[in-house]
Amino acid sequence: MSDVSIALNRFGMGGRAGQVPQGDPRRWLTAQFDRFDPRPAPIAALPGTKLIASQLATYLAEARMLGQRARREAGARRGRAMQGEDAMRMRAPADATGGAMAEEAGNDRDPAMQARRFARQQGRDHYTTAVGARAQAAVASDTPFVERLVHFWANHFAVSADKVTMIGLTGAFEFDAIRPHVLGSFRDMLHAVERHPAMLLYLDQAQSVGPNSPLGAAVARRQARRQIGLNENLAREILELHTLGVRTGYSQADVTEFARAMTGWSVAGLGRGPAARITGTDGEPGRFVFAPRIHEPGARTILGKRYEQQGERQAAAVLDDLAVHPATAKHIATKLARHFAGDEPSAPLVTRLEAAFLKSGGDLPTVYRALIDAPEAWVAQPVKFRTPWEWSISAMRALGTQEIPAQAVVGLMNQLGQPIWRSGSPAGYDDIAASWAGPDAVMRRVEAAERLAARTRETIDARARAATLFPDALSATTQQAIARAESPAQGVALMLVSPEFLRR
Amino acid sequence: MISRRNLVLTGAAGALSLGFAPRLAFAQAATDRRFVFIIQRGAADGLATVAPVGDPAFAAQRGVLAEEFGDAPKLDAMFALHPRLTNVAQLYAAKQALFVHAVASPYRDRSHFDAQNVLETGGNSAYQLKDGWLNRMLGMLPADERKGIAVAATIPMALRGRIEVASYAPSALPDASDDLLGRVATLYAEDPQLHAIWQQATATRTLTGDLVANNGRNAAATGALAARLLAAENGARIAMIETGGWDTHAGQRGRLGAQLNGLDQMVASIKEGLGPLWDKTLVLVATEFGRTVKVNGTQGTDHGTASVAWLLGGAVQGGRVVADWPGLGDAALYEGRDLKPTAGLDSVIGSAAAAHFGVDPARTMAAMFPGQKSARAMGGLVRA
C-alpha cells in the first residue's frame, strides 16, 4: 500500500468517491483534530440522553404501579381460592416467569405487558435511529480518522443493548460520553463514561447499595425479605476492561472495596416517587446522581492506597488515579497499537505509545500523534482484516452513498455478525482477524456486496473507482477481476470483496 | 486389523495396567461418534441449574434463588434440576444425562474473558495456548474424518487451531449468484488466507443447501441446524454452539429461567434432529466459572468459581450427579464466597472424550490438556 492509501484506509474509513487526501498524508491526519465536529447534523438531530431517560422513567413508574396492582389482585384471588377453589390453578400467574410466558402467548390485554412492549419498541426506535445517524456521520465524515477513534473508544467502553432499560440509551452513550472527549483527556472520557446512565444501568451500578449505608442499615434492621446490597459488576469491569486491564495486580478485595466506594453513583429519575426519595435518586431523569442514602460509609483501601474522601469524591478519586496509572497506559497503548498496526503489535510501539500517554497525563491527541509518527503503522502490507462495521462504512463511502435507511444499516450489521452496541459483553468486539475472517463471515460479505452493488444501478465504473480508493495500491489480480466482470454492478461487487477492500 | 472395539479395549487395558503402553493414541478406524460442545458464555450459575437442595445451608445461602426449587424434579437425595429443564429431566430419567458438579477449569480469578480463554484453549492460564482443545480433539479422529464446525458466523477459540474447520450460521441474506461466487474464487486464488477461507465457505454452502432458508434465530432452530450439520452423510463429527446471556448480576431468577428454557429446547432439537445418531452422541455443556453462593444486592449473583458441567446423549452413562460435594456452609466456601471446586473440568472433558472416541485416556489428556500433568481420569462417564 502507498502512504496515501494507508492514510485513507488504515487510519481513515476508506475513501469517499472523488476524495483523495492532498499533500502529506500525515498532515492530512493531524489536521483532522482541528476540524472534527463532535455533533454533526445527523447526530445533533437525535433526541438526547435526557429525553430517552425521561421516557424510560415514565415506563418504569407505570410498570411498578401495574405490578403493585397485579399483586394486590392476585392476592385477592388467592384469598378467594383458599376458600374452596383449587389453589394450585392460581399459582402459575403469580410466578416470576409468568410475565415472559404471557408475552409469548401474546397476551394483548395485560396492561403491564403492553407497557413493556411499548417501552421496548420505544427503545428499539431510538436504537435504530441512532445506528442510522452513526452510519450517516461516518459515511459523510471528512475527519474519518477521528471518526474511527470514536468507534474505537465506544468499543473500549462497550455498553451492550441487552436490557430493555438500556437499548434506547446506547446511542446517546456514544454521542454524549465518547464523542465530546475523543480529542480530550482519557480521564475526562473515563469520568463521563462511568457517570452515563447507559453504563450505570448496563453494569448494574445504579442499584448497588452499601450494606452499611443509611438505607442498607434500615433494611437490615427491618430484616426485610427483599435483599438489597452491593453489586460489584461495574467496579470489576472498570479495573479489568476500562483502565488497568486484566491480570494487572488487583485482587478480589480491591474489586469489592472499589464497589463499596462506587455505591451511591446512580441515575436520577428511574425510581420516581417515594422509592427515589428513600434511595436519594430523585431528580431529572437520566442525570447522574450521587445518592448519599445508599453510599457505604468509611474510608477505603484500593490497590494499597487509602481513600479518606467521603461520598461521591471517593470513587472519583479512585478513577482519577486509575486514569493515569501505568497499567492503564499500557492497556490503552496496546489496544490502540493493535487497532492501527496489526493484531500482534510490536513491543517497542506499545512502549512509545505508553510513554506518550504517561508523559502527557493521558492527553489523547498526544497519543494519536505518537501513533501517526510510528513507522509500524505505515508498513506497506495490510495489517488488519476489516471488521463488518469498518467494511460496511468503507463500502458505503466507496459507493458515494447519500441516503442511508437506518433500518437497513441495523439489518446489515446483524447479518454480518457485528450488531452495533450489542457486543453482548462489556469487553466489546474483538479487534483481531481470527474473530472476523471466518468462512461464513466472508460468504456473507459477498452476498451483501452483491446487493449493495445492485443498488448502484450501473452508475459506477469500478475500474476507475477502485483506482481512486486505493491510490497506487491495487493488485493486478483485482484490476483484472474487475475489468473482466460481466456487468458494471458485478465489477462493483468484486471491488467490495477484493482482498484490498477486506483489509486495511 | 484393528477394529474400533479392539482399540477401546486396548485403551482401557493400558489405563489399568502399568507396563502396557498402547501404541495407538488416536483412533485409526472410522468412528460413528458425534460430539457437541455448547459453551455458556458469561458464567452460568451451576447452583441454580442443578441445585443442592439437600445441603443444609442451601436455603439460607441462596435466599430468593432457592424458592425456584420448591417443586423442582429431584435428581437424587441431594440435587434437584431447574424446573424449566423439562427435556433434560426426561433425558436424566432415561439415563442419558449426567451432571458433574463443583467443577472448574484451572483458572481461579474472575474475569469472563480470561476464563473463557482458559476453558476454550485448555491451558493452565489465559493466552498460554494458541489453539483450542476442541480442535486438538479433532486431531484424534481418523484423518479423513477431522471435520468440525462452529454453528456461528465466526470460529470460536475452542475450535481454532491446526485443523481447518468450518463455520456456519443461518443467513437471511439472499444467496449470491453462482457466477459471482466463481469469480470470487478466482480473485482469492493467490491470497493464502482468503483462498483457504473461501474453500471452506463454498464447501459448507454445498453441504447445508436449503438451510439458508431456515431462520435460526431461536435456540431450537440453532440446535436443529447443528443436528443437520452433524447428521449429513459427509458431515461434521464435532460441532460447537455458542450461547451467551449467562452473566446474571441482577434479577437472576427470571432471566436464568428463560436462558435455561432456551438451552433445554436446543438440546431437545439436537436429539430430535440426530435421530438414531443420538445414541452415538455426546453433548457437553460447560461454562467458564460459576457464581457467588450468596445472592447480591440486586437479586443476582456475582462472579464465582465452581459450577456444573452437563453430559448429555445416548452414549452417556447418565441418571447420576457426580460430585465430591464441598458443602455450602460459610466455612466450606472458596475464598469465603464461591462454591469450592472439587473436580477439574479438563478431567471431565478429557475422560469423556477418550471414552467416547475409544482412545487412550492418558494420551488423550496429554493431547487435549497438555499442561494438566496431574489431572485424574474419571471413569464411567460414557459408554464405550
From TrEMBL, chain A:
InterPro entries: DUF1800 (IPR014917). It holds the Pfam family DUF1800. It comes from the Bacteria. This is DUF1800 domain-containing protein.
UniProtKB/TrEMBL annotation, chain B:
The keyword Metal-binding does not apply. Pfam families: DUF1501. Keywords: Signal. Residues 1-27 form the signal peptide. PANTHER family: BLL7424 PROTEIN (PTHR43737), DUF1501 DOMAIN-CONTAINING PROTEIN (PTHR43737:SF1). This is DUF1501 domain-containing protein.
